[in-house]
Prior knowledge:
The protein has helices spanning 4-17, 38-44, 177-184, 197-204, 211-215, 226-235, 249-268, and strands spanning 23-28, 50-56, 59-64, 69-73, 78-83, 89-95, 98-104, 114-118, 133-139, 144-149, 155-159, 309-313, 316-320. The chain has 326 residues and is of the alpha+beta class. It folds into 2 domains: 4-184, Alpha-Beta Barrel (N-terminal domain of MutM-like DNA repair proteins); 197-320, Helicase, Ruva Protein, domain 3 (Orthogonal Bundle), CATH 1.10.8. The strands form 4 sheets. The protein has a 5-stranded antiparallel beta sheet, covered by helices on one side. Strands 2-3-4-11 form a 4-stranded antiparallel beta sheet, sandwiched between helices. Strands 6-7 form a two-stranded antiparallel sheet. The longest helix has 20 residues, at 249-268. It is globular.
Amino acid sequence: MPELPExxxxxxxxxxxxxxxxxxxxDIRVRKLFPxxxxxxxxxxxxxxxxxxxxxxxxxxxQLSNQWTLAVHLKMTGQLIVIANxxxxxxxxxxxxxQNVLAYCRLPIADxxxxxxxxxxxxxxxxxxxxxxxxxxxxxxxxxxxxxxxRKFGWMRLLRSGQNSKFGIQNSESKTVEQFLDGLALGPxxxxxxxxIKYFRDGxxxxxxxxxxxxxxxxxxxxxxxxxxDEALFAAAIKPTRRADSLKKSESTKLYQAIKVVLxxxxxxxxxxxxxxxxxxxxPGAMRAHLKVYGREGQPCLRCGDNIMRKxxxxxxxxxxxxxxx
Length: 326
């Protein structure tokens, strides 16, 4: 699953490629990925202009001109691709709203004009659309947004504004953005103003769970996953197997600061990515080259030279240096 820097990279890519464009058609090939009522989709999405792209934790929020929001979660293998309206070919495809003309690229994805964001998969490295393309949104200028998902765990949902009464009775099937986000019970954004040192220290008190487990708890801090939890703990020299309530004041300060530093670095580097995952400039995310422990099991620690270890904690793995981290 992508973490905060990867989703933020996707958000920025979408912001630079589809904001200001007007939705023309929506082709849903697998209903479970976009299960909203078709009439609501047509009324709330088609003909609307993309106003802005926001993010809450690992969730993308595409704001529409009618105050509706298209929420997108990439989950384990989701990928969003924008193919710009240049050097493209077209093909006819049957969609649920009738015949639709789609733009696609016959070139390898890495050579297609536009933006690729999300999970890299060998299965995705083929002409669009393909068998793993489940939702296609086209715009009036010929640009196309493709939602690929190998395992089909990702999803799209339409959410209405609490102030929007348009579309009458159809609203009964759609939650408001506020209701939906409240239901997720997410903690503060780690790079936002609500994530203070006081909040962090108070959250560690009387928590007997392992610190690595707590960092992955989205109700405590939103957006941190396995990669950046491991990197933050290494930067703060704290073992992932320590109990959260065992951290001293100085250690909690170091970890608080490390969380911000590694996330900001991840965003600057365009996330941790491979193969077909590119930022909006068309280059792969470069954070992989900056990882100190994650994915480096058996390799020498860059700080002390001891071998990096990998330990199973619950359902997740933790990478750490047994010497540097205490």
